[in-house]
Write a structure and sequence with these properties.
The complex is a heterodimer of chains A (250) and B (437). Chain A is of the alpha/beta class. Chain A has helices at 40-48, 72-78, 95-109, 117-130, 135-138, 148-162, 178-191, 231-239, 242-249, and strands spanning 2-11, 14-24, 29-33, 53-62, 65-66, 80-83, 90-94, 141-142, 166-170, 197-201, 215-220, 223-228. Chain A has one domain: P-loop containing nucleotide triphosphate hydrolases (Rossmann fold, 3-Layer(aba) Sandwich). In chain A, the strands form three sheets. Chain A has a six-stranded mixed sheet with strand order 6-9-10-3-11-12, with helices on both faces. Chain A has a four-stranded antiparallel sheet with strand order 2-1-4-5. In chain A, strand 9 (166-170), helix 7 and strand 10 (197-201) form a beta-alpha-beta unit. The longest helix of chain A is centred in the middle third of the chain and has 15 residues, at 95-109. The radius of gyration of chain A is 18 Å and the shape is globular. Helix content of chain B is 22%, strand content 37%. In chain B, the strands form two sheets. A ten-stranded mixed sheet of chain B has the order 2-1-5-8-10-12-14-16-18-20, covered by helices on one side. In chain B, strands 3, 4, 6, 7, 9, 11, 13, 15, 17 and 19 form a ten-stranded mixed sheet that branches. In chain B, helix 1 runs antiparallel to helix 2 (23-38), helix 2 (23-38) runs antiparallel to helix 7 and helix 8 crosses helix 9 (393-409). The mean pLDDT of chain B is 93. Classes of the chains: A alpha/beta (250), B alpha/beta (437).
Amino acid sequence: MLKIKNLHASVEDKGILRGINLEVNPGEVHAIMGPNGSGKSTLASVIAGKEEYEVEQGEIFFEGEDINELAAEERAHKGVFLSFQYPVEIPGVSVTNFMKTAINETRKAKGLEEMPANEMLKMIREKSELLEIDRKFLSRSLNEGFSGGEKKRNEIFQMAMLEPKLAILDETDSGLDIDALRIVANGVNKLKSKDNAVIVITHYQRLLDYIVPDYVHVLHQGKIVKSGPKELAHELEEKGYDWIKEEANA
Amino acid sequence: MELKDKLVSSFMAFEDHLEASSPIHGIKNQAIKTFEQKGFPSKKDEAWKYTSLKPVLKHNYSLFPKQETAIDYNDIKKYLIHDIDSYKIIFVDGKYSSYLSQTTHEGIDVCLMSAALSKTKYRLIVEHYFNKAATQDSLSSLNTAFSSEGAYIHIPKNKLVEKPIQIIHFATGNEAALMLQPRNLIVVDENSHVQIIERHQSLTDNPVLTNSVTEIFANKRAIVDYYKIQNDNQNASLIDNTFIKQKQESHASVHTFSFGGKLTRNNLNFYQNGERMDSTLKGITIIGDKQHVDHNTLVHHIEPNCESHQDYKGIFGDSATGVFNGKVVVEKEAQKTNAYQSNNNILVSDKATINSKPQLEIFADDVKCSHGCTIGQLDESAMFYMRSRGIPKKEARALLMYAFSNNVLESVKIPEIKTRINKLIANKLGVNIGFDL
């Protein structure tokens, strides 16, 4: 589904990713861990198509197609979704209207008619129940005045609405209390299928108790320095990242 | 001949039609003298530093259109808020159109300035209020000298006027260039409530210059909500001079939506004579090309325990220029004043300009006054967020701009106006936003 080859990327001439190789297949959950500043969020943004990041070298294939030149919205239309670490507040646009616009623009790009209003409402109801979101919440301005937990739940709600093939969860666990973490993880697990894939980016192993990865990759100085099964996450939790850094520098 | 000279010499001919005994006659004579002495303002005047009238004064304007022109309702329907029941005072090339209008004298007076100026039954009101709020600046004086037509609205006490009143001026383009000087007098007595919509619309690309004066008197506990829709053609310019005198416990609001025209100058002045009242001044400006919109506001707090709220949003594209000059004066006696002012702008082009200048003159020591001004570009992180959800760049921009200006619409009390303004915003931004506005 996703194939990244020797990816180098920079922002404002500062190299951040220095040769990433990663392959994600349908049905898989990959965790990307690593110390602060290792390039985790940059990798997420580059896959999603943030323009400020310059891809200097390497390729990103999504379902066999090189998506490097595609705009963020085109990648979204193909089924790439990024759950933001810091969701942006957009006063004046309600959650519902934002989702209607996103879904209908995606449908338009695929040559489909707009989703009928009753179908949209039904979908919104189902998905908001999945994330235990109060209906009143949906008429509020997008992310404006939301608590950390509400913002993250809203991200996963959007994911549920857009039904992406590849979901990248960037530090979705940060700022969540244990109840919110459970709700969010539960939502992600219910959306998982053999046809879609998830990349979980996290600093801590905590979220991975709920969203169990098939593979764990450790990012350090813009490179994946170690990959392994889910047990690697536990090892990192116990031993920290220093041994990884030492191994990498050795 | 320069426009100024033409105006001054035309006044003599115009004066012949005036009733010499009318109390207004003296006021007009004085006003033309004031204009003759002061002339049109230039960029040397501090209040006109960023707005030059030169390009709009160069045309050879007709001051008195030669013929009356009938226009068809279907051609102008779209410029009206036609989906609600309303009173309408409609002018075509400065002349009242009884065919298009719907006035009333049942309990309230919604009619014509010319009638008010000539009929004895209105004399008391006219003498009491006419030119009592307008200042003696050159443009208002010019209007006063020539004022003969416009809207006259008098709401006696304890009347809730359920139907909004639309005041609309059309220019047909029958004159190669036309100057209009409408004069509106609006008196709202104790406990009464009125909603007014004003619009100036040129039907061709022939140059039109409108120098309008509106005097509004909101008496004790009156509520006045005024909406100005400015979306005129590219060669139409408007100088809007509006003066609002408020008495105790009244509420007055003016919303100005500026999307069109060549040059628009809004001189909006609020005078608070009394306690416990509030004044609201809000505006959305979205312009492009070489359009120019200048908001020059004044709120004069004279007595204690009053509030004012100013909120102006601007989006400027291409080579458009905007000005916001917001002055708040708090007199020494006006303790416990709460004056709030905010002006936020987005420049979507490198060539667009905004000059924003808050002016606070505070002589009282126990007041809350705040002002804030921002000038920025569209938030890139918000753009990426929306695009990552599949919303294309153009629509994302539109949605952001819509969101940026949206909170100004929250205080609009007539849903049909809200819908109309939303549509105008969407049109102006050139997109169909994917949900019902």
